[in-house]
Structures are given as structure tokens and as C-alpha cells.
């Protein structure tokens, strides 16, 4: 059996992305409502009860996008991004289950949107990794080293300008543009 056509692969990826986006929207709405209710139940004022769910969902979005970008360049993402995604997902899932009807069915129903998003997002990452693996050579994201320069007598301002210029060139070669 041969490889699927580029057109078919793109159609599958677009459908997967649309599905993940829809599940993300559903999970965000359900999660927001549950976390909001949970915050109010535990003494948070109305403003905090609005902001806390946004902070949790925002963390999930930022971690997900970091992993997505890393996957696009052939990497699985870093420990920090995955850790924050897991923590945010567990907080969301926990809030959903905490406010659910106290029965097995009630808890499964409340947990379902988060679980569906987590699973579908990982399926999307698998697709992206497979496509990135098919590229001739994956590009690595720039790494910023806190180590001091080898030439300690060099002008620190000049070294920083050189490092910034090098980083800008590497990012531009990957298609990252600052406006």
C-alpha cells in the first residue's frame, strides 16, 4: 500500500486541526463554568472566579502552542512545556470532576470534554511528528546559553549584539518574523 497523496494528508490534517479546535472550545467553555463554580464555592470573589479559569486555560494554550511549534520542527517539546500542559490539564479535569454530580456517570460526563481534548491533541501531535520526521533534516530551535563567553576579555555589549544578530538570523531562517 502506497503513501497517501499530499492533498489527502493535508485534508486529514485540516480536519484533525478543526476537530481539536472545536474540542478545545467545548472543553474551555465547560472547564470555565466548572472552575468558576468551584472558585465561588471555595470563597473566591467574582473577579478571581473569572480570572482563575482563564489562567488555567491560558496555561494550557501556551504550553500546547509551545509543544506544537517544537513538533513542527521535529522536536517533542521540552519538559517545562509538557509539565505545564499536564498540570493545567489536571487542574481543568479536577475542577470538572469536583463540581460534577457525585456519581460515576456524573463524573465521567463532566470529565469527558477535557479527556477528549487531551486525547485529540496528542493525536494531532503524532500527525505533526510523523510529517516532521519525513523532512530531510529537522531544524532545532535556538538555545540560549547562560554560560559566560569563552573570551572573557571581549566587550560584553559587542558579544550580546553578536548573539542577538545570530539568534535573529536563525529565527528568520525558520520563518519566524518580528514586526
Structure description:
- The protein is mainly α.
- It is built from five helices and no strands.
- The longest helix is centred in the first third of the chain and has 36 residues, at 6-41.
- The N and C termini lie far apart (46 Å).
- Mean pLDDT is 80; it is low at 136-149.
- Topology as a string of helices (H) and strands (E): HHHHH
What helical percentage do the residues reach? over 70%
Number of strands: 0
* Model regions low in confidence, pLDDT < 50 over at least 5 residues: 136-149
Categorize the overall geometry.
elongated
Quick summary:
This protein is an all-alpha fold and 179 residues long.
Properties at a glance:
single chain; 179 residues; mainly alpha; 2 domains; 5 helices
List the SSEs and their pairings.
Elements: H1 6-41, H2 46-72, H3 79-98, H4 104-133, H5 156-173
Helix pairs in contact: 1-2, 1-3, 1-4, 2-3, 2-4, 3-4
Keywords: Membrane, Transmembrane, Transmembrane helix
Pfam family, one: DUF2637
Transmembrane segments: 12-35, 47-70, 79-98, 104-124
Amino acid at each position: 500500500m502506497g503513501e497517501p497523496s499530499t492533498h489527502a494528508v493535508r485534508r486529514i490534517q485540516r480536519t484533525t486541526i478543526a476537530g481539536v479546535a472545536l474540542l478545545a472550545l467545548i472543553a474551555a467553555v465547560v472547564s470555565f463554568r466548572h472552575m468558576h463554580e468551584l472558585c465561588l464555592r471555595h470563597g473566591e470573589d467574582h473577579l478571581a472566579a473569572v480570572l482563575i479559569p482563564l489562567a488555567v486555560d491560558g496555561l494550557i494554550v501556551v504550553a500546547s502552542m509551545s509543544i506544537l511549534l517544537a513538533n513542527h520542527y521535529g522536536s517533542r517539546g521540552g519538559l517545562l512545556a509538557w509539565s505545564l500542559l499536564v498540570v493545567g490539564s489536571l487542574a481543568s479535569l479536577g475542577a470538572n470532576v469536583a463540581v460534577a454530580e457525585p456519581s460515576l456517570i456524573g463524573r465521567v460526563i463532566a470529565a469527558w470534554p477535557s479527556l477528549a481534548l487531551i486525547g485529540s491533541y496528542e493525536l494531532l501531535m503524532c500527525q505533526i511528528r510523523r510529517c516532521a520526521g519525513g523532512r530531510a533534516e529537522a531544524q532545532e530551535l535556538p538555545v540560549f546559553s547562560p554560560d559566560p563567553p569563552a573570551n572573557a576579555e571581549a566587550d560584553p555589549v559587542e558579544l550580546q549584539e553578536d548573539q542577538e544578530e545570530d539568534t535573529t538570523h536563525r529565527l528568520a531562517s525558520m520563518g519566524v518574523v518580528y514586526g
